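chain below, 113 aa
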Amino acid sequence: MVEITEAARRELDEYFADKEKAPIRIYLSAGGCSGPRLALALDEAGETDDLFEAGGYQFIVDKDLAVQAAPMRVDMSHMGFSIQSSLQLGGGCGCSGGSCSSGSCGTSGSCCS
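prediction:
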């Protein structure tokens, strides 16, 4: 299940004001120093996807992710769109005094050796 806040719907309405509405994918992004996160992208549905309608928009989610992350809530923050879900995400580089730009994050996702 996907729900969308009024603030997120207004932002999408503004974006699509002069273009045709396209399906919006919710996907698990590798993230950066903060670790994996749920993100949005315009896309088309595939065979392994579930479709959800919310706020006049069609959201696409991989079936496995939909089961793991449900329910999902698309909202707006000062940083842009955010997706809350039941997934426990985060991790990555959290060293005090560390810097993501230092290149200290290896493929393990940890900068504290």
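Confidence is low (pLDDT under 50) at residues 95-113. Helices lie at 6-15, 63-69.
thats it, cya
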